[in-house]
Design goal:
- The protein is α/β, with parallel strands linked by helices.
- It folds into three domains: about 160 residues, Beta Polymerase, domain 2 (2-Layer Sandwich), CATH 3.30.460; about 130 residues, Rossmann fold (3-Layer(aba) Sandwich), CATH 3.40.50; about 100 residues, no CATH class.
- The chain has 16 helices and ten strands.
- Helix 2 packs across helix 6, helix 6 runs antiparallel to helix 7 and helix 8 crosses helix 13.
- It is elongated and about 120 Å long.
- InterPro entries: 4pyrrol_synth_GluRdtase, 4pyrrol_synth_GluRdtase_dimer, 4pyrrol_synth_GluRdtase_N, GluRdtase_dimer_dom_sf, GluRdtase_N_sf, NAD(P)-bd_dom_sf, Shikm_DH/Glu-tRNA_Rdtase.
């Protein structure tokens, strides 16, 4: 039973292709059940995000399983094979495991170390479990991966360094003002950047949101998202007297906030601290505003400097995460190869016992008249011969089983000795991870 992945992402496919192969969340369960009817697929998970569509499967026939997934995607997307196939990537066996480990750690994301993907993978797995389309190998595969994702974030803190402009603006606000709980904010501009920044501020405790835009209707729409207040553009001065934070992201071509305006505002505030964050290009706030008592001003260059520092920190954390992934890969490989090695060793031992017992009984029946001591010596010698003969092959197979080619060595071993490995033994081995402390055994 081997894990395989067929998918595409933001690196391999443009958005117009990703749109056609994606699934609305309410269709995932029916898609899983349909896919399960294709030949060669034993366990399944569909991971569908805005940046990737990946189908994970467990199969006993790698080529058949991959072809089934490709056929399913072609039928679903209603695209010609040559159109969709050029955007797909395929990972099999250990490269599939490594890929999922990197995905869940945030190392394969558009933003290095992003947090959201961990929850998305968990939800994808839960939907597959609910649909009843997973199996033991898929369960262990994904439970391991989720453990890896949590371990990476705990040990490297890769997601503790914001790299988006809107989120970094909020982090700078927290540095300047401390706790944002109960703080009031004024957003200038009603575009996407303004909306994202407001969202992060509210998530961090800001309780009052005012929005001002030259188009009052757009200001009202954005304010409504946060149960806020839309403020006419000509009342900015009065509003700035009341708030703690001003985030400016308009599309103006000239300065919107000037020093003389802020000087008057600060006099009315009795120079109570006011944080101004200018994320517009060109800038909205005149740089001389920073000279006024009580003002803290950050512009886009200040934010980008922080982002660059954080990106460097994430890259360092990413290297640490790769080390963790290789450690976890070694554990998974050891477990997966043991699925085949241990039943094979048991089968060889049984074969040795069968041959020994048959030859012993045949020889003893011919000899006749042996004393109890003589028979014991012969039986002991037979045991010793068989044990010594199979000791080295078994020792070598145990060693080879921990390598990347362990399952291949096991198959060759079975063929050389004509072993009939009990498939039930292999199935039972799949249910319990061997020698891997990081595997979660609870299903679901």
């Amino acid at each position: 039973m081997f894990p395989v992945i067929v998918g595409l992402n933001h690196r391999t496919a443009p958005v117009e292709i990703r749109e056609k192969v994606s699934f609305p969340h309410y269709q995932i369960e029916s898609a899983l059940l349909e896919l399960k009817s294709y030949p060669g697929l034993e366990g399944l998970v569909i991971l569908n995000t805005c940046n990737r569509l990946e189908i994970y499967a467990a199969t006993t026939d790698v080529d058949l399983g991959i072809n089934s997934i490709k056929s399913f995607l072609v039928n679903h997307a209603h695209l010609e094979e040559q159109v969709i196939f050029q955007h797909l990537y395929v990972h099999t066996l250990y490269e599939a495991v490594r890929h999922l480990f990197r995905v869940v750690a945030g190392l394969d994301s558009m933003i290095l170390g992003e947090t959201q993907i961990l929850g998305q993978v968990a939800q994808a797995y839960e939907k597959a479990v609910k649909a009843g389309v997973t199996n033991k190998v898929i369960n262990v595969f994904f439970q391991n991966a989720l453990t890896v994702g949590k371990r990476v974030r705990t040990e490297t803190q890769i997601d503790q360094h914001p790299t988006s402009i809107s989120y970094t603006a909020v982090e700078l606000a927290k540095q300047a003002l401390g706790d944002l709980t109960g703080r009031s904010i004024l957003i200038l501009g009603a575009g996407e950047m303004s909306a994202l920044t407001a969202k992060h501020l509210v998530a961090n405790g800001a309780s009052t949101v005012m929005v001002s835009n030259r188009s009052h209707a757009r200001a009202q729409n954005l304010a409504a998202e946060f149960d806020g207040i839309a403020v006419p553009f000509d009342q900015l001065g009065e509003c700035m007297q009341k708030v703690d934070i001003v985030i400016s992201a308009t599309a103006a071509t000239n300065f919107v906030i000037l020093p003389e305006q802020i000087q008057e505002v600060m006099e009315q505030r009795n120079y109570r601290p006011l944080l101004l964050v200018d994320i517009a290009v060109p800038r909205d706030i005149h740089p001389d505003v920073s000279e006024i008592l009580g003002i803290t001003l950050y512009d886009i260059d200040d934010l980008r400097e922080v982002i660059d520092t954080h990106q460097n920190a994430r890259e360092i954390a990413g290297k640490k995460a790769e080390v963790i992934i290789e450690e976890e890969m070694a554990q998974f490989m050891k477990w997966h190869n043991s699925l085949f090695a241990i039943p094979t060793i048991v089968a060889l031992q049984h074969r040795g016992e069968e041959i020994k017992n048959y030859q012993l009984e045949h020889a003893l029946s011919k000899l006749g008249g042996l004393t109890e001591k003589q028979e014991k010596v012969i039986r002991s010698m037979a045991n010793s011969i068989v044990n010594q003969l199979i000791h080295t092959p078994i020792t070598n197979l145990k060693e080879f089983a921990t390598t990347r080619q362990g399952h291949l060595y096991t198959e060759i071993f079975q063929n050389l000795f004509s072993l009939d490995v009990d498939e039930e033994s292999v199935r039972s081995m799949r249910s319990v991870p061997q020698n891997s402390s990081q595997v979660i055994t609870k299903e679901g």
